[in-house]
Design brief:
Strand order of the largest sheet: 1-6-5-2-3-4
Number of strands: 6
Radius of gyration: 15 Å
Oligomer: single chain
Strand content: 15-25%
Largest sheet: 6 strands, mixed
Structural class: alpha/beta
CATH superfamily: YqgF/RNase H-like domain
CATH class: Alpha Beta
CATH architecture: 2-Layer Sandwich
Amino acid sequence: MPERHSPSEQPSSALPASLTVLAFDFGEKRIGVAVGETALESAHALCVIAAEDNKSRFAAIERLVAEWQPRVLVVGLPAHPDGTEHELTRLARRFAQRLEGRYGVPVMLVDERYTSVAAESTLREQGIVGAALDKALDAAAAAEILRSYHEARKSARSG
């Protein structure tokens, strides 16, 4: 089940059946973004925000939030393969807190271990390699994070 970002949020299984979700693959240099819809359990790579400064990053995110009007934001939570946290885990949590504070939209944290590996595999199967793969990878990883969110919601509903 996705980790709830703050105690005031509803569990993901209690959210309405159909809503728009934006997912983020947070990185210090780039942030991959995907969009999806919960009833269809869709997840589509949307874009990569390549700005390193927070002002530019949040300006780009603000445009996406205004355009897509998500009811939930999902942030991938990185960890070591054994599940222990590291510095990027702390930064991703801080990013999630900032998203919630700025946009007033519930933020769910989802384990993102191996999402980049799955995204790269999918892109390679589609014949995307080299520079094109590098350019598409972060948004494709965000789509994998969103798929993980959908799976966790489905498990919570059936469990």
